[in-house]
Design brief:
By secondary structure, this protein is an alpha/beta fold. Helix content is 32%, strand content 17%. Helix 3 (79-97) crosses helix 20 and helix 10 (226-240) runs parallel beside helix 16.
C-alpha cells in the first residue's frame, strides 16, 4: 500500500487529505481517504463527502469511454470519431447561425478542475460565443454586484478576519454543514467555537441550524426578511451617530442610506420579520458594544429575491463599524494565482454598475461578469438562437430554473455534448458524452484561491492512473478547439489523439494557470502548499478606496430595490445544505430530500411526521417525506436542492429574475403543502 498526499476538490474548502492506494496487477484500488493532520489549514479535518472519494472513483457506473448517439442510441466510440463528429456539427452550426448559437455551461464539475476550467474559458473565447453560463447566476450574483456598486470593483472578495474577529454574524449561512460555500471554511465547527469563546457569534436564519446551535444568539425571521434585521441595525447605528471619520473620509451618501433605512424601526422590523422586539434590541446592543465585526452571508441570502439589498446592508454595517479592511473585521483577498495589489490601479465601475448585452430572447436579462443568466437558456433554445450546448460537468435540470421547460428545450438542441464522470439524466439525453478524469486521476492546483481563508495555493499530483479512456478535461477541450481551427495548447503537450499524452502534460497546463502566481510553480509542486503573508489593513484596498472617493453607501439601484420589498407569503420554501451531498453530486451516499416543516404548519395541512407530502406552486410539485421539527420556524418549509427525484427546480421560475443580474429566485418561493396523493 502507498499513501499519497493530496487535497479534496469536492468544494472550495480544499481540505488536505491522505489517500491510501493498493497497487495490484489487476489495477490500482483506492482504499481510504483520511484527513492530513499536517495540513496547515484543515489540520486533519475531512467531511463525509471528501471521505467518499474512493466510492466515487470506483463507482460501478463510471463513464470510461466516449459515447456518440447513433440512431437514437448512445454507443461507445473512440475519441477521434467522437470529437471529429462533435467538431463537424459545431462548425456547421457556427457557419450557419454564428458563434452565439453555441452555448457553454461551466458547471460545478469542471469548476474544481483548474486546467479544465481555464481551457473551457479559452475555448469559449476562441469560438467567440457570448453564450457563457455558470453557477454564478444560480447562487451568487449578489456578492460581486455589491462589490461593484459599493466598492467600484467586482473583484473585491470580502471575508471575515477569523484570526481577529470577536463579533461575527452569519445570515442565511450554515457553514458547519456547507463549509461556508464561498467562504471556504475547512473546519467551520472549530472556527466558530473559537470565535464564540472569545467573543460572540450570531445567526440570522429561519432555521435553528447546526451553526445556530454553536452561536451566542439566533434570530429566526420570516424567509426573505433578513434584510430588514440588517436595515434596523444600520438605522440604529446612524441614529446613534456613526464615526465621523468614516463618514467624512471613507464613505459617501450616508444621508441617502439613512433615508433608505429610516422606516426600519424596531417595531416595524419586528412585525415584518416576525421576531421578538427584545431579541432585536439585544442584537443591536451587542453590535453597538462590539466595535468591529464581520457579516457573512450564504445561499439562504444570495438565492433570495432580497439578495442584493441584504448583501448591501451587510456591507453597510461593516463600513459603519469601521470593520472593512481592518483587523477584527473583514479583509479583502488579493489572490494568489494573480495579485491584485500588483495592478497599478484597479478599474473603477460607474455608480450604476457594469453590465453587458444579454440574449436576444430575453433583452431584460443583461450579461453580468461576462455571462448570460442561466434563466435565459431555455428561451434561447426555444427561440432557435442556441442550437448547441457544451455542458461541462453540470446537472442542468437540478441546477437551472423551471426544469420542466428546460427539459423540453434540451430535446430541440442539434447538439448536447456533456463532459462528465458518471451517468446522469443529462448524459442520458446527450448527443455526445465525454468521459473526464475524476479528481484522483489528475494533477491539480487550487483554482478559486480568492475564496480561501488565507493567501495560499495547493498542488496535488495524480493519485492513480485514469481508467478506461478517461482524459483530462483540458485535453478534451483543446482537441475540440483544434478541430474548430483554434490552437489552444501546444501539440507537444496534448500529443496525438491516438497516442499517449505526455506524462507531465497536466503539470504543463497547470504551470500556465499559475504563470502569474506569487510563487514559482516548480516550488509549489515540491512543497504541495504555499502561503503568502496577509496584509491587514491592505494598502492596495486603501489606495483603491482613495481613488473611488469612499465607499458608495447608497447605490440608487439598491435603494430602489429596498423600497420595493414586499411582505412574505404565509409559507415560503427555503434551501439547505447537507453533510453527504453537494448540489447534484454524491446523491448515492444516502442523504434524502426530506421536507422540513414546523409542526404548526404540518397540523394546518394535515401532515404527520414521516408521511409523504407534496410542495406545490403554479409551476409544479415536489414530493418527499415530511420531517416535523421545531428547529424551523412557522411559515418556512425546507427542501434541499440537487435531487432528480425531488427536484426543487420544478418550482423555480425562469421568468422571475433579479432585474440587475438576471439571478433566479431559488429561496423564499411562495408555496403550499399538502399530504401526497
Amino acid at each position: 500500500m502507498r499513501t499519497v498526499r493530496s487535497f479534496c476538490r469536492v468544494c472550495q474548502s480544499v481540505c488536505g487529505i491522505l489517500v491510501d492506494v493498493h497497487d495490484d496487477p489487476a489495477g490500482e484500488r483506492v482504499l481510504r481517504v483520511r484527513g492530513d493532520r499536517d495540513h496547515p489549514v484543515s489540520a486533519g479535518y475531512t467531511c463525509p463527502k471528501g471521505r467518499a472519494l474512493p466510492q466515487l472513483h470506483h463507482h460501478p457506473d463510471r463513464l470510461e469511454h466516449p459515447q456518440l448517439r447513433v440512431d437514437g442510441t448512445l454507443r461507445d466510440f473512440g475519441w477521434e470519431a467522437c470529437l471529429d463528429d462533435l467538431a463537424a456539427r459545431l462548425r456547421t452550426i457556427i457557419d450557419s447561425h454564428g458563434p452565439q448559437a453555441v452555448g457553454i455551461f461551466l458547471g460545478s464539475g469542471i469548476g474544481m478542475d483548474a486546467a479544465g476550467y481555464r481551457m473551457a474559458e479559452a475555448l469559449q473565447t476562441a469560438i467567440a460565443t457570448p453564450a457563457k453560463f455558470t453557477p454564478l447566476t444560480i447562487d451568487g450574483t449578489a456578492k460581486p454586484l455589491v462589490a461593484d456598486l459599493m466598492g467600484g470593483f467586482m473583484g473585491l472578495s470580502c471575508r471575515a478576519d477569523h484570526d481577529g474577529v470577536d463579533f461575527l454574524i452569519y445570515v442565511g449561512s450554515n457553514p458547519v454543514v456547507s463549509h461556508g460555500h464561498a467562504l471556504a471554511m475547512p473546519n467551520a465547527t472549530g472556527t466558530i467555537r473559537e470565535i464564540a469563546r472569545r467573543g460572540q457569534v450570531w445567526v440570522i436564519d429561519p432555521r435553528h441550524t447546526e451553526t445556530a446551535r454553536l452561536a451566542t444568539g439566533h434570530l429566526a425571521p420570516r424567509p426573505g426578511t433578513d434584510y430588514a434585521v440588517l436595515a434596523y441595525l444600520v438605522r440604529e447605528l446612524l441614529v446613534a451617530g456613526a464615526d465621523r471619520d468614516i463618514m467624512e473620509h471613507r464613505a459617501v451618501d450616508a444621508e441617502r442610506l439613512a433615508a433608505a433605512v429610516e422606516p426600519f424601526t424596531c417595531a416595524h422590523t419586528a412585525a415584518l420579520a416576525d421576531v421578538d422586539p427584545a431579541a432585536l434590541i439585544r442584537l443591536r446592543d451587542a453590535v453597538r458594544g462590539a466595535g468591529r465585526l464581520a457579516v457573512e452571508t450564504g445561499t439562504g441570502v444570495t438565492m433570495a429575491r432580497s439578495a442584493n439589498v441584504t448583501q448591501w446592508l451587510a456591507w453597510a454595517l461593516m463600513i459603519l463599524t469601521d470593520s472593512m479592511n481592518r483587523p477584527g473585521g473583514a479583509w479583502f483577498h488579493p489572490g494568489y494565482a494573480y495579485q491584485l495589489e500588483s495592478f497599478p490601479a484597479l478599474p473603477i465601475s460607474p455608480p450604476e454598475g457594469t453590465f453587458g448585452p444579454g440574449p436576444r430572447s430575453r433583452p431584460e436579462a443583461r450579461s453580468f461578469l461576462g455571462e448570460w443568466p442561466c434563466a435565459a437558456l431555455a428561451d434561447e433554445i426555444d427561440a432557435g438562437n442556441i442550437r448547441a450546448l457544451v455542458n461541462l460537468g453540470g446537472g442542468l435540470l437540478t441546477a437551472f430554473p423551471n426544469a420542466a421547460a428546460l427539459r423540453s428545450a434540451l430535446d430541440r438542441l442539434d447538439v448536447l455534448a456533456t463532459l462528465e464522470i458518471l451517468p446522469t439524466e443529462i448524459t442520458a439525453v446527450s448527443t455526445h458524452v465525454l468521459p473526464a478524469k475524476d479528481q484522483l486521476e489528475r494533477a491539480d492546483v487550487t483554482l478559486w484561491d480568492i475564496l480561501s481563508t488565507n493567501v495560499s495555493a495547493q498542488y496535488t499530483p495524480a493519485v492513480v492512473a485514469p481508467a478506461g479512456e478517461r482524459r483530462s478535461a483540458w485535453w478534451v477541450l483543446a482537441e475540440l478547439g483544434r478541430r474548430l481551427g483554434h490552437d489552444l495548447c501546444d501539440r507537444d503537450i496534448a500529443g496525438d489523439i491516438g497516442g499517449e499524452v505526455a506524462p507531465d502534460a497536466d503539470d504543463a497546463m497547470l504551470a500556465r494557470v499559475m504563470c502569474r502566481a506569487r510563487g514559482e510553480f516548480a516550488d509549489l509542486v515540491v512543497a504541495g502548499y504555499q502561503e503568502a503573508p496577509r496584509e491587514l489593513p491592505a494598502a492596495w484596498v486603501e489606495a483603491h478606496l482613495d481613488r473611488l472617493g469612499g465607499w458608495r453607501m447608497a447605490p440608487q439601484a439598491l435603494v430602489d430595490q429596498l423600497a420595493a420589498m414586499s411582505s412574505p407569503e404565509p409559507l415560503m420554501l427555503v434551501p439547505r445544505r447537507q453533510r453527504r451531498h453537494l448540489n447534484s453530486q454524491l446523491t448515492f451516499l444516502g442523504d434524502r430530500a426530506e421536507i422540513l416543516l414546523h409542526p404548526d404548519d404540518a397540523a394546518t395541512a394535515g401532515i404527520g411526521d414521516g408521511q409523504p407530502a407534496t410542495v406545490r406552486n403554479r409551476l409544479g410539485t415536489v414530493t418527499g417525506i415530511a420531517r416535523l421539527t421545531t428547529e424551523i420556524r412557522p411559515g418556512a418549509v425546507s427542501v434541499p436542492h440537487g435531487y432528480p427525484g425531488a427536484n426543487v427546480n420544478l418550482l423555480t421560475d425562469d421568468a422571475d429574475i433579479d432585474p440587475l443580474t438576471g439571478m433566479t429566485r431559488y429561496s423564499g418561493l411562495p408555496v403550499s403543502i399538502a399530504p401526497a396523493q
